[in-house]
Amino acid sequence: MNTLTAGHSRRSLLAAAIAVPAAAAGATVLGSAPAAAAESGLLVVQPWTTITLAPHLLVRDGNPPQARILKIAGTDFLQLRGGLTCEKDYEFDGGSTPETLDLLGTLPAALTPATTYVRGVAPRNNRDGLSSCRIEVTLDGKIYVYGATAANKISWIQLDSFSAVWR
Predict the structure, then answer these.
(1) Domain 10-165 sits in which CATH superfamily?
(2) Which pTM does this prediction carry?
(3) For the residues of the chain, what is the DSSP string, one character each?
(4) What is the chain's alpha carbon radius of gyration, rounded to the nearest angstrom?
(5) Are 43 and 71 in contact (CB under 8 A)?
């Protein structure tokens, strides 16, 4: 049974989720009054907040990685932005204990998922033809990177395209 309301098909939700990162860069949505944003089907639930990075990571291009929650057509999305790179002599390598080797950072408490983990994909350094990695956020707000191996290490990640259903 389809529980989506009229005008909110899965296709329109997906199209909105893909369009939001581009639309969010413009001043028309972010600069609009809350009532106008709500009428357009877009509402900022939690504003951009800086992510606490794991100790072995550095901010890329001077823009610290951040997260926010948007409501699009009644569905909450976690969005990430910013870039990060690994310190010299460190790379994500897909070790046997991701809790220590593949930790990207931690979300602020207000952005921690309440009911399920969040999963999405982000661009990374291209090695052996692979140019994306999986990013997962756990119920305790920890952000992990997956997809690296000893032969295919990850040295940088760009989070600007990350947008996933939050709950």
Answers:
(1) Phage bIL170 RBP, head domain (2.60.40.2460)
(2) 0.72
(3) ---PPTT--HHHHHHHHHHHHHHHHSHHHHTS-HHHHHHTTEEEEEEEEE-EE-TTEEEETT---EEEEEEETTEEEEEEE-EEEEPTT--B---S-HHHHSEEEE--GGGS-SSS-EEEEEEEEEETTEEEEEEEE-TT-EEEEE--BTTB-B-EEE-TT-EEE--
(4) 17
(5) yes
The domain limits of the chain are 10-165
* Token reading at 26: 């413009």
95-145: pLDDT as tens digits = 655 445 588 999 999 998 877 888 999 999 887 777 888 999 999 999 998
